[in-house]
Amino acid sequence: MFVNSLRRWKERTYFSRMTKRISILLGIMLFCLLALLFMQGYLAYQEFQRQQADFKALVNELFAQSVQAEKSARVDRLVHLFMEDLDDPGVVIIQAHRHPEDELMVFDFMDPDTRDLGTSISFRQTIELVDTLTPETPIWFLEQMEKQARKDFNAESIVFWTDRLGERIKRNMTELPVDTATLHNSFRSKLDSLDIHSDFTIRIDSSFASAADEAMEATVRSRAHPLFADTWIEEKLAMAVIDNPSYAIFRRSIFTIAGSAAVILLTLLSFYLLFSTILYQKKLSEMKDNFIDNITHELQTPISALRLAVDSLRRFEVKDRPEKFASYLQISGTELNRLSELVESILLHSTGRESGEIEKESMDLMELLRAATDRYRQKAEKRVSVTLPDREEFPVVSSRFHLTTIIDNLLQNAIRYSDQEGVHIDVRLEHSGPGFVLEIADNGWGIAPEDRRHIFEKFYRSSDQDRNYTVKGTGIGLYHVQQCVATLGGKIQVHSNHPRGTIMKVIIEK
Hints:
Layout: H1 2-86, E1 93-98, E2 105-110, E3 117-122, H2 136-154, H3 163-175, H4 180-193, E4 200-205, H5 213-217, E5 219-221, E6 225-226, E7 237-243, H6 246-252, H7 254-315, H8 322-351, E8 361-364, H9 365-379, E9 384-387, E10 395-398, H10 400-416, E11 423-432, E12 435-442, H11 449-452, H12 465-470, H13 477-487, E13 490-496, E14 502-508
Parallel strand pairs: 9-11
Antiparallel strand pairs: 1-2, 2-3, 4-7, 5-7, 6-7, 8-10, 11-12, 12-14, 13-14
Helix pairs in contact: 1-2, 1-3, 1-4, 1-6, 1-7, 7-8, 9-10, 10-13
GO biological process, one term: cellular response to phosphate starvation
EC number: 2.7.13.3
Pfam family, one: HATPase_c
């Protein structure tokens, strides 16, 4: 008794130290994990910020290109209107003559109504005389005027060649705005070419709010680009505003973020596997110690009874007392059978015979059930009543060893885990396709819900320590049953038997 108490104290001390070490290890692992999560999150945030800045610079560059393209298109439209006015005698009359001093060709712009001279222009690229004008001269003149007009329009300046022509130019420049639809389509095309499909708006105004509002609106803005030169025309600025740019920015940084996420997931998985392995090893250690404790008790009990019976036979004169002699022999035989069954169970587990090759044969399952129930009724130290199926025979083709192991273990558990006053066992048997279903129901103590998913694990015993102290066992009986059922191609289920007890349901499908 003292030795057992000392051993249990040592076990509790050992497991207490192990639990403390595991707690410290868990704390260190959690700290490392949080540090890793923080670092990876910080790196991902920095990458997102960098991609956001690059995205904003890219948007500004693309929009600047679109604005410049539309400004050039507007100048082209103004030049086209100007050239049409030059060709209209109702707007301006142009005459060419030789300058009296340097003999350059001079072109006079005159009002068509009053013939008043508005402006004279000469080009140093030619010194052709008036009397040598060729058919190509007007074409050359128009080309030079187009270049001059394009230069003036790019600078948003107006040259009043004549009053009427100047007013026409001023009206065209004032009334011909930037084509926002074309600007929108151009910018959309440039974004699509880079696989950026975010929605955007183009704002045109004389001024815009500060960039601080950008973060509040969850947008990305380009810089404000002037649509006209800084001249007499009212200043107009154009700005592109990308709505909800987070998805586009996220796509640009997806590889970095995905890499960080992969590192985090792999680290989490590693920590989980490491910690679960530690807990599993701790559980195995506890189960091993419990198994050794239980198996020691199971071995000591029949050995002690045998020693007592043998000592009694040796020390007392029982040869002349047949009833005593027979009693001691019966005790010895019973304990030897108990010891043999225990050793057989351990050997069965160690050799893995329950999951090895099977030899099937024709047999009567009812015969196996009757033999098993008779055997356990005689061995039981309590009242056992068994209700068998109302069948004479139930022929099957299966493994006698595996079926016997299943029936014996289930009947033994039903008897052991019940009240001392007795137990009633109800055995049900029916066909199911090519196989059969065997149910063994009892009105014993039942199995707690938290234990049901573990009862088929090797060495597992009930979480009720008082029950384990009352009924000793190795924790491998139901494990053998589950292995045998699986070898036969079936499955086993556990249910509550109302109002009390357990139903073990074995389904053999072939």
